[in-house]
Amino acid sequence: xxxxxxxxxxxxxxxxxxxxxxxxxxxxxxxxxxxxxxxxxxxxxxxxxxxxxxxxxxxxxxxxxxxxxxxxxxxxxxxxxxxxxxxxxxxxxxxxxxxxxxxxxxxxxxxxxxxxxxxxxxxxxxxxxxxxxxxxxxxxxxxxxxxxxxxxxxxxxxxxxxxxxxxxxxxxxxxxxxxxxxxxxxxxxxxxxxxxxxxxxxxxxxxxxxxxxxxxxxxxxxxxxxxxxxxxxxxxxxxxxxxxxxxxxxxxxxxxxxxxxxxxxxxxxxxxxxxxxxxxxxxxxxxxxxxxxxxxxxxxxxxxxxxxxxxxxxxxx
Length: 317
Fold this sequence. Notes:
Layout (H helix, E strand, L loop, with lengths): L13 E10 L2 E9 L3 H5 L17 E4 L4 E4 L12 E2 L2 E4 L2 E9 L5 E8 L7 E3 L1 H5 L9 E5 L8 E12 L3 E10 L13 E3 L1 H4 L2 E6 L4 E6 L15 E5 L7 E7 L3 H5 L6 E5 L2 E2 L5 H6 L5 E8 L6 E8 L5
Parallel strand pairs: 8-13, 9-12
Antiparallel strand pairs: 1-2, 3-4, 3-14, 5-15, 6-7, 7-8, 7-11, 9-13, 10-11, 10-17, 11-12, 14-15, 16-17, 17-18, 18-19, 18-20, 20-21
């Protein structure tokens, strides 16, 4: 199986049998199910991933405003009120959309961007698209990941683009560009993927049977697409197997890296509070850390426990 990262295809076990997945009133039967170490990638609060084909038989309403997915038997004219049909292409259970990312006054990336409902980022450009850019003189930050997926470790470079047009135009967008040599972010026909930090500003209707995609701007006031990491690192919650969060990625030259924190270190406490006490909902909403923040960390190699005081608040770019 292939996947994001640099290690190439990996051998994984699969279940060749019928497995039933119940999602409310929707029942899906899968006949081939891969077993992937998703905990290492997504953390303790997720048990699996649902692919497009599980919800592909009917039109699907994705309402980010009220937070629900709704399969419907058919689309009526009143259901499409306020929506605009987007230039989308349906291929092999994937959706590609014609969009344009304006980097600056002289550079842009125009082509098909893949809709990725499982991605928590903004825009991630493929390795091929990155190679075509000149980022000299731009404020950039390189992020190193211990595990990007089945394909292993990887890295990307972050910068700000002038705008991205999905339905309407979003300005000052934080963008990542991949260095991956394998998977959907390597050298592909699509130029990038669109994650939920963009998609959450719209309500969507995916009409897979008729190969149509509709969107309307919602009332989400967030400017998440303009925000970059203030910790200058990211973690995976593995309090199911240990007493902390494992540092899963880190920005070169950021406050965490400069303090000596490394990928694989385990965060035990933040400002004296054990991270085992911090539940999923609080993590999801963000901890709101600002100013001098004390991280108690167990180092990955020696097991030594050290405290690091990081100045939290300024985005990496």
